[in-house]
Design brief:
159 residues; 3-stranded antiparallel sheet; two-stranded antiparallel sheet; 22% strand; elongated; Mariner transposase; nucleic acid binding; Transposase_1; RNaseH_sf; Transposase-MT_Hybrid
């Protein structure tokens, strides 16, 4: 079927574009997609980052190690456990998920998209917290990079 092939070639086609391709009405195209092919158009699901298999494995290894320490010293471990993270904060209004809608077949999950869009400017705060709450927030200076020296300096602030 021409409509099904066109959608599989480009899942972001609009009903109007499909109508032009196959030469039939928009309502007929929509009916074929939804009723005959049991397809629907879903928005992407925003995710913070798309991690590689190696990154996921590293996160799992650290989590298992922390869990083992928690089980052996659960009272003191949580009080001494400090978490740090950093993220880019962009000065812009992100694109809408609507712009990335795609046709999916029944049972297919919504597509994922990392929010990686260039903007007018950005800052990178590093957050540090423990079981009691926020310890501090530090903003990376312009032109600097997060490396071992930067992380060591942040850790020294905690002692």
């Amino acid at each position: 079927m021409a409509i099904h092939k066109a959608v599989l070639d480009d899942r972001r086609l609009k009903v109007r574009e499909l109508s032009d391709i196959v030469g039939t009405s928009k309502s007929a195209v929509h009916r074929i997609l939804s009723k005959n092919l049991d397809m629907r158009k879903l928005c992407v699901r925003w995710v913070p980052r798309l991690l590689t298999v190696a990154q996921k494995q590293c996160l799992e290894d650290v989590s298992v190690e922390c869990l083992a320490k928690f089980h052996s010293k659960n009272e003191t471990f949580l009080l001494r456990f400090i978490t740090m993270d950093e993220t880019w904060v962009h000065h812009f209004t992100p694109e809408t998920k609507e712009q990335f809608k795609q046709w999916t077949e029944k049972g297919e999950a919504a597509p994922k998209k990392a929010k990686t869009v260039r903007s007018g400017g950005n800052v990178m705060p590093s957050f540090s917290w423990d079981a009691r709450g926020k310890i501090f927030i530090h903003y990376l200076e312009k032109g600097k990079a997060i490396n071992s020296e930067y992380c060591a300096n942040l850790l020294q602030r905690l002692s």
